[in-house]
Amino acid sequence: MEQQTQSRQAQTIDTQVTTAQPTPEHHSIEDQRPGRRQSQDLVPSGQSTAATPRKTKVVVQTQQPLTPTAGAPDSDDEGPQSEDGDGDFLADFPDDTPELELVHCRLASCESLHLPRFGPYLERLCLRQNHIKSLDSADWHPLVKLEELDLYDNQLKHIDGALSQCTKLESLDLSFNLFRSVPESISALVKLRSIYFVQNKIAHIDNLSAFASLRTLELGGNRIRVSTSHMNHNV
């Protein structure tokens, strides 16, 4: 009898260890950004059950790495190579989806996501822990409703004017990428309240004078030499 009790206790412990989930290391913007929330089960359009309500949030997530994959601050290493799929990666999901989480999906670009079709509705987009190296304006200019964008842990060195039409953005996370400066083009995003550039290669803080609403700016893990010529207010 004692042996059976010990056996059941051992099974209970094993189950707890197996089902435990890792805790994300990077805190959210006010703990509400899409890349920091728990994933939910997917229910593609056209498929439903009597007990399951229609999902408005799309989550696609594979096993996450234990550490960020972008190059180290003193290196130009761009990390592992991507394995983009062919066709429409999100073909099963409706155009009016307001929130997308595509975490650690080995995406090298956004072409296979066909983002423009979500343009009139998409408010939150999380693409953290992929291998994205550049942003194409054709993919991003239609996202005029976007309010939160998470590109944490990719391989971006620049964004050019890809986000210039995303003028409703309030939260932008470009941490753990390969930026050497704050992109000048984000000056057009005057509604930004929170900006994250943690662990890049940034040496100068410029291009921040336009953000009258800015409340949070994180630049840890860079080698900053402060330039005050463009800082007209306290950040």
Question: What does this entry show, briefly?
Answer:
The protein is low in regular secondary structure.
Describe this structure in words.
The chain has 235 residues and is mostly loops. It has one domain: Ribonuclease Inhibitor (Leucine-rich repeat, LRR (right-handed beta-alpha superhelix)). Helices cover 9% and strands 11% of the residues. It contains 2 helices and 7 strands. The chain has a 7-stranded parallel beta sheet with strand order 1-2-3-4-5-6-7, with no helix packed on it. Helix 2 links the parallel strand 3 and strand 4 (148-150). The protein is globular and about 45 Å long. The model is unreliable at 8-55 (pLDDT under 50).
Identify the notable features of this structure and list them briefly.
235 residues; little secondary structure; Leucine-rich repeat, LRR (right-handed beta-alpha superhelix); seven-stranded parallel sheet; 2 helices
